[in-house]
Amino acid sequence: MNRVFKLFKVRDVPVKTLKRKYATVKTANVDWSPMKSKKQLSQNIEFSGTKSRKVFFGLLCLAPIITFALGTWQVKRLKWKNQLVAECEDRLTYKPIPLPKNLTKEDLPNLEYRKVLVTGHFDYSREVYVGPRLHDGKKGYTLICPFVQSNGSGDVLLDRGWISADKVVPQSRNLQHLSCPKGEITVECVVRVAPTKGIFHLDHEKHSKLYQYLDADAMAEELGTKNVYLQVLQNFHDRPEWLNNESKLSDTVNDAVAKTSSWAFWKSSPKIDSSKLNNDNDYHPDIIDTSKPFDTADEFDPLQFINAGVPLGKVPKIDYKNNHMNYLVTWYSLSVASTILLIYMFKKGRFLNPTEEKMMYAKKIID
């Protein structure tokens, strides 16, 4: 600092002022020893730009062809799905038949949604549950129970339907002759092809009664049944023929009490005379008339089944999803849009040589 003062002979001037007005060292702003390269920077940029343009141009040319092919494939899928739904709807109109004895997994697609009758009894010791599943905002599970056929053709998997979470234990259910029928019974079902295990599905934990998803293969292997999956049809009629002789009277009283609690909201409750309950052969008009065929008075409502723990069976309708029309419209729309874009790019000349574009721009400036 003293050398600066001596050089300019301005000792009384502040240092900050000197730094602002005078520069003692000059530094070059340009690097005079740049790295040498065989290719210029402009050439590299031009090469990469041309390559990306070619890739984009190729994809744009392929887009109309690929999307048109996918749309045509969806047309075939739509025809196949419509035919499948029509066949299944036609099968639902047929009268139920006894389940074939030698039915295998390979035969299920040809009988899907066919109504069948199975005769035998449930094995409640092997009940399993799938879920949880929601029904009208209430937590529950899909109840699947092995059914032992009386004709000796093997056990099958019966999907009894949805049951609330607080009624999964068989002892906690009411209307036992409907929720846990005992003895030999005949059940009306529909044949279904169970969905296969997905890629992202985890393996089922063995010896567990809870399944996260429906895996008929794992269920059949673990429960020792045939790989035949049936769904019990929804039926809210009473089944007095499912009552056992020794428990017929007690279950009849329970049914009357259950109906009394639900009927009390809109009609007078039926009165039960205990003096009439001494003999099983007596006629009890105030409870249930089992000597007459079913009518609307012998039918429950879904809420009664839910509260009593009776599984809600399968509604007789087709569950297939047919979204192929939406896919068809989507792919064909993309094909048309990409074709229009390609024609627009050609008409506007967007695929000229970058070097030629630069020369044209330079000529405009020079002129």
TrEMBL record:
It is found in: Membrane; Mitochondrion inner membrane. GO terms for cellular component: mitochondrial inner membrane. It is a multi-pass membrane protein. Keywords: Membrane, Mitochondrion, Mitochondrion inner membrane, Transmembrane, Transmembrane helix. CDD domains: SURF1. The chain crosses the membrane at residues 55-73, 327-346. One of its GO terms (biological process) is mitochondrial respiratory chain complex IV assembly. Its main location: membrane. PANTHER family: SURFEIT LOCUS PROTEIN, SURFEIT LOCUS PROTEIN 1. Belongs to the SURF1 family. This is SURF1-like protein. It comes from Pichia kluyveri.
